[in-house]
Structures are given as structure tokens and as C-alpha cells.
Design brief:
The complex is a heterodimer of chains A (220) and B (94).
Chain A (H helix, E strand, L loop, with lengths): L2 H13 L3 H13 L4 H21 L5 H18 L5 H7 L3 E6 L7 H12 L3 E4 L6 H10 L4 E5 L7 H12 L7 E5 L5 H7 L3 E2 L3 H17 L1
Parallel strand pairs in A: 1-2, 1-3, 3-4, 4-5
Helix pairs in contact in A: 1-2, 1-3, 1-4, 2-4, 3-4, 4-6, 6-10, 7-8
Chain B lengths: L3 E6 L3 H11 L5 E4 L7 H13 L6 E5 L16 E3 L7 H4 L1
Parallel strand pairs in B: 1-2, 1-3, 3-4
The chains are: A alpha/beta (220), B alpha/beta (94).
Chain lengths: 220, 94
């Protein structure tokens, strides 16, 4: 199978939300010797972009994003199985630590953002949900991440977002990271008030903000 | 055999049709378009409008979750309303 055919198949598998087809195409990509970056950014990611655009237009909904993300992740785990840690780092647009904040267990939106960030070429460290503030900072430092991203779905857990900033300041390391937040009750106003760097209302916006933050980091 | 009709959300159309075909479901299905859940009042009204147009059935089966409380306040004086005990479709997909 020709390279372009495989790339088209990867794209189609995500667009049609078919995990089996995505895995099949991923195996073909590996067998054909396609570079993982190419298979992801020119194949799978294009499929995610289609779904993301349709979502923004109100033509598909969260369930479809979840199914497309499943297909995407199924293919990615096959494609990246042989990549070394160094290769993964080098290829990436930036390293993002993502999580649902301490006290909160809503993670569906966070998972969609994670998949789309990954589709856009970011290296993701997903700490899951209800992650203690101290652990977020600890791992951010250990893994030398570029961006700390956190989602809060309840007004009662939003303070964790502020606490992360406080801890970073206390330890004198606030400037080492870009911090971005999202979640239903979160707003630009809140993010500005607590001194974070960016807010994303939707997953697509989150991707755009993440790219902008990386540009700031590199330019600074 | 109970006379039943199904009112279902279009987001679930692939899954509902898979089951309907497998079970050779004898009930008609009315689709409600996706996305109305973002304004629960509108979804409630859309479902109620359909219920109001239906007669001569014993059961109205709603293939919806509570969907932001959209199902609250639905009335069907001449039929039994049946719906699954689930918050919304996200639970099915995630």
C-alpha cells in the first residue's frame, strides 16, 4: 500500500470513528516504515481536525468526539510502541502536563483536550483526575514540562487552580511554566484573577492557546 | 402485545438501529435532532410536542437520558412513559 493511501486510511478511520480500522491502518503504517510523526500529523490528526471542526459547527457532539478519540488513541499506541523516549521528546511541539484538579473527577472534557493536543504534536503527561496540587507541581518539575494544564468542572474545585499558582510562586518557580485552565465554570476572568496564563473555552481553543503559549515561551 | 412507540435522540441513531435490527423491533421510531440538550427547555418542548401528537399507544419509550433535566415535567395523559435510568449518552460512550 502506498504511503498516501495509508495516511488517507488513518484519517478516514478517525473520521469514521472506527477503532478497528484505525488499528489496521496503524499496523500498515508501521509495516510500511512510515515515521510515527508523519502517520500521526498527516494521517490521524487530520481526522481529528475534521471532527473538531464539525463539533465547533454543531454538526457532531461529544459522543462522536469520544469515539474518534478512541480510534485515534488505538492507532497511536500501535504507532508509537517502538518510539524511544528521546524520539518522542524531540518530535513534540511541547510537553504538557494535563489533569483534572484536586477534588474533581470529571474528566471527559480533559480527555478530549488531551487527545487533540496529542493529535497536534504535543507530548502529554496525563495525571488523571482528583490530582493533589502538590503532585501536579512535583511532576511538572520532575518531568520539566512546558505547560501545566488543568480542568475543573465544579465551582468548589476551581480553587485548586489558584492553589497550583500559589505553590509555584512559593517555590519560586512560577516563571518556569505556562499555566492554562479550562472547565465549565472557569472563565477568562477567573484565570486572569488567579494569575494563570491562558483560558480555553473549547478543546479547539485549548489547542490554539497551547500553541500560543509555546510560541511565547520560545520567544521569551 | 403492548402497542409502543419510541422517541429517540439522533445522536444514538447508529446504536439504536443496530439494536432495532437485531431485535427486529416492531415499534416505530421518531427521531429528535441532536444538540437540543444545550438548552434543556428546548429539548423538553421538542419531546413534549412529539408526545402530544401521539395517540393509541400504551407505551412511549424515550431513548434519552435525563439530559440536563430535559425530561422533567413531561406529560403523557394517555400513555405510559418509559425511559432509562441514566444521566445522558456520554455514559454510554465513555
Amino acid at each position: 500500500m502506498e504511503k498516501q493511501q495509508i495516511l488517507d486510511k488513518l484519517k478516514k478511520a478517525v473520521e469514521e470513528m472506527e477503532s478497528d480500522l484505525a488499528e489496521e491502518a496503524a499496523k500498515e503504517a508501521v509495516a510500511a516504515g512510515l515515521s510515527p510523526q508523519e502517520a500521526i500529523s498527516d494521517g490521524l490528526a487530520k481526522g481529528m481536525q475534521t471532527l473538531s471542526d464539525l463539533f465547533d459547527e454543531g454538526d457532531v457532539f461529544v459522543p462522536q468526539l469520544l469515539l474518534a478519540a478512541e480510534a485515534f488513541e488505538a492507532a497511536v499506541s500501535i504507532i508509537t510502541a517502538t518510539m524511544t523516549v528521546e524520539e518522542k521528546s524531540q518530535a513534540s511541539q511541547g510537553k504538557v502536563l494535563i489533569h483534572t484538579v484536586q477534588g474533581d473527577i470529571h474528566d471527559i472534557g480533559k480527555n478530549i483536550v488531551k487527545t487533540m493536543l496529542s493529535a497536534s504534536g504535543f507530548e502529554i503527561i496525563d495525571l488523571g483526575r482528583d490530582v493533589p496540587v502538590e503532585e501536579v507541581v512535583k511532576i511538572a518539575v520532575e518531568r520539566k514540562v512546558d505547560i501545566i494544564a488543568g480542568s475543573a468542572l465544579m465551582t468548589t474545585t476551581m480553587p485548586s487552580q489558584r492553589d497550583i499558582i500559589s505553590v509555584l510562586k512559593e517555590e519560586g518557580i512560577r516563571d518556569q511554566f505556562k499555566v492554562m485552565y479550562g472547565g465549565a465554570p472557569v472563565s477568562q476572568e477567573w484565570v486572569d484573577k488567579i494569575g494563570a496564563d491562558a483560558y480555553g473555552e473549547t478543546a479547539s481553543e485549548a489547542i490554539a492557546k497551547a500553541k500560543a503559549l509555546m510560541a511565547e515561551k520560545k520567544g521569551a | 402485545m403492548n402497542k409502543s412507540i419510541v422517541i429517540a435522540c439522533e445522536t444514538l441513531s447508529d446504536e439504536v438501529m443496530l439494536v432495532a435490527n437485531e431485535l427486529k423491533l416492531p415499534y416505530p421510531i421518531i427521531w429528535i435532532k441532536s444538540g437540543l440538550h444545550t438548552t434543556p427547555e428546548r429539548l423538553r418542548k421538542a419531546i413534549q410536542d412529539q408526545i402530544n401528537r401521539i395517540d393509541n399507544v400504551e407505551n412511549i419509550i424515550l431513548l434519552f437520558g435525563i439530559c440536563g433535566n430535559s425530561l422533567l415535567g413531561l406529560q403523557a395523559p394517555k400513555a405510559r412513559i418509559i425511559f432509562p435510568k441514566v444521566d445522558d449518552c456520554i455514559a454510554l460512550f465513555s
